[in-house]
Amino acid sequence: MKNMYKTIKVGAVLLCLASTNLSAQVYCASSVASPTADEDIYNVMVNGNVTNPLYSNSNGCSTAAPGPGSILGGYSNFKTLGTFATVIKGIANTFSVSEDECDGASYYPNGCAIWIDYNNDGDFYDSGEQIFVENSTTVSPRNIFGSFTPPLAAVSGTTVMRFIVAESVSGTGFDPCMNGYNAPTYNYGYGETEDYVINLVPPTPCAGTPASNSVVATTTLVCPVFGTASLSIANSYTLGGITYSWQSSTGSILGPYTNISGANGLAYTTPTLNATTYYQVAIGCANGGSTIAAVPVTIMVAATTTNSVPYFESFEGITQNNQLPNCSWTRTDNFQCSSRTSSLSNTRIARTGNKFGEFDASNYVYYNVRSYYSNGIQLFAGLTYSASVWYMTPGYPTWFNFSLLIGPNQSTTGQMNLATIGNPNNSVYQPLSSTFTVATSGLYYLCVRAQENYYGSQLVWDDLAIITPCSFASNGANINVTGPTQICAGQTANFNATGAGTYSWNTGATSSSLAVSPAFNTTYYITGTNPLTGCYSTLAKPLQVNQLPPVGIAVLKSDVCLGGSLNMFATSANSYTWSTGTQASAVSVTPAATTIYTVLGSDALGCVGSATQQIVVNPLPVIAIVPPSKTICMGEAANLTASGAAGATTYMWASNSLFVQGISVSPNPQATTTFTVSGTDANGCTGSANVVVTVEACVGIATVGASSKKAAIFPNPNSGDFTVELNNNLTKTIEVMDVRGRVVLSSTSDNNQVKVNISTLANGVYYVKVKS
């Protein structure tokens, strides 16, 4: 730890001894850094030539330079060693400076500047003689690289090159004598000055076409609004007379390219860019030859960075000291609002990782309010946010009013103070946090702010964050579920949820919709996450299941004969709809084939039960009569027999004068008559058939000629005595039958005439059959 107050000491006046052509010049003496412990120049390189090892690196911490006025760790005069390096005018010459601290940690930010006395007039104040300066400081230890191009007008021969490294000094804070007034009375505190002799020589004139080359850039991605890139060529030319003409294009890396006015040097620094731009340089030789175009480089502009919550910044993405997390961050001061890539002491360390932000007061600019502004963070009205930042001090109030704020701009306009600690005084990290809401949705910017105290030390901070705590109900998901509150058993309930980003039902489903068919009353639970916060909420959705009415069908029988009808009756519901289209409790059907009938029954809640009934259709038996037709004489009997398919077992014969049951009948119609027989099977189904019996008169004759072979009956009609005649001399059988077909008399005779007496029988019609 350095003392809080630095000792002011008048540096010794240093006279620079020159080589042959320097004997008449006396350079201003550089004030000697005091104390001499920190920011030491370990090594210098110019065009590959390095500081004498006797006085470089760790040797330089114990051995002072050999020249007059040298003070260990404060001023090193190497001019008495002769020419250090040859420097060619008109071309790029390279250099590097290795900077470290002989006393080790703690390390501090510093800057570097370099001068050359180009006109050899004994001072470094002429235009262009400051060849390099850092405009911001960087923490030790480090290496500084660069190049410079001496003007062709510079005086050839030996001259002096001066290097200065000074703690907390950058830009215009540098002076070749570190007095600011060209008077050797000012001391610059921690740091070191080193003087070397170089030999300026003119370049060899170029001829012909320069060798191919390419453009290189310090960065190929610049920040919008304030970012620039420094361009140069990859390979330096050692010849003189090289000409350069820088060109740019915004269309394509293939061009077309336009010359940049006034950009004719070895290097070129771009202006602030707002679009991708391509750069090349046309390289030629003043003594003739063709011009070549160096391979171009593409400089892109970083996009605007915005974030959403949760937001966390710990500086782990920066690659070098003093860098902000991205181009969309801003700060009010580049020195006092810095960042670090590694620890500098036990109180200048990261809370997490290796990198952190820092309020640095080591430049002794007192009481200024300094601020960092984050890039835009999308916030939403209605949510509750928690913002926090962690901070640590060296153990005393280095900075005061350390605050965390938020606002709609990267300025004080509209800022809301979230939390402030007036006098932070802690050697371990402490949090500063608060919850808040915003009135309107949009981009907001976090601000980390502090006011400098007078001690000239640091306050470090890390892990800036905004989260949405799930302990606040407003940060949960605003779930809404649409769908039925009750269904009938067997139905499907369709639920649809809104208001969340992701969903999870207690059934295991993970979509916003759910289709369920419970058998009984059930409560469903859905958990949804808020897409803006990641917080979740749970909603219950009860579902009542109404049971279906126990619909039934009553019938007297479940089968019917083809062509027959029957009635069916539905039960146990309020209203009914049959599959026949009938809307009533009872329905009469005449099926043509076996059919399943369905009835839907609705109760008072609209629930629908169903029942089915199969009605079997039995076919009718197929009835036949043998013979299918018949012709008889009047008075004869017609013998008829019925047969039936499908197992008909009962037959009924009917005509206009007959109604008899039986399989066979022998009616004796007196006129042509149609007889119908109906047959009923085991299923009770009835079929029928008809037969026509044709009756002829067949009038009797008195005698039959001897030659006649026909039978004759006479007299006819009679009173019971009659003669049957058949002149064939054969044995003949005579049968007498009543109208039912019963044989009431039978006799056999060889006579051609046979007397028959049936007077004992009842009056009526009888049939006589003669067979021979």
Care to describe what's here?
With 772 residues, the chain is mainly beta. It is built from no helices and 63 strands. Strand 53 (650-654) and strand 54 (659-661) form a beta hairpin. The radius of gyration is 63 Å and the shape is rod-shaped. The relative contact order is 0.06. Mean pLDDT is 88; it is low at 1-25, 180-186 and 701-707.
Give the SSE map.
Elements: E1 40-46, E2 49-50, E3 75-77, E4 83-88, E5 93-100, E6 109-116, E7 130-133, E8 138-139, E9 142-148, E10 157-167, E11 191-201, E12 204-205, E13 215-217, E14 221-222, E15 230-233, E16 239-240, E17 242-249, E18 258-259, E19 268-269, E20 277-285, E21 292-293, E22 297-301, E23 306-308, E24 311-313, E25 330-331, E26 337-340, E27 356-360, E28 369-373, E29 376-379, E30 385-392, E31 399-407, E32 416-421, E33 430-436, E34 442-452, E35 458-467, E36 480-482, E37 486-488, E38 493-498, E39 502-505, E40 513-516, E41 522-529, E42 536-546, E43 552-555, E44 559-561, E45 566-571, E46 575-578, E47 586-589, E48 595-602, E49 608-618, E50 623-626, E51 629-633, E52 640-644, E53 650-654, E54 659-661, E55 664-665, E56 673-680, E57 686-696, E58 712-714, E59 721-725, E60 732-737, E61 743-749, E62 753-757, E63 767-771
Parallel strand pairs: 3-11, 4-11, 12-16, 14-22, 23-29, 37-42, 44-49, 51-57
Antiparallel strand pairs: 1-2, 1-5, 5-9, 6-7, 6-8, 6-10, 10-11, 13-15, 15-19, 17-18, 17-20, 20-21, 20-22, 24-35, 25-28, 26-27, 27-35, 28-34, 29-34, 30-33, 30-35, 31-32, 31-34, 36-38, 38-40, 39-41, 41-42, 43-45, 45-47, 46-48, 48-49, 50-52, 52-55, 53-54, 53-56, 56-57, 58-59, 59-62, 60-61, 60-63
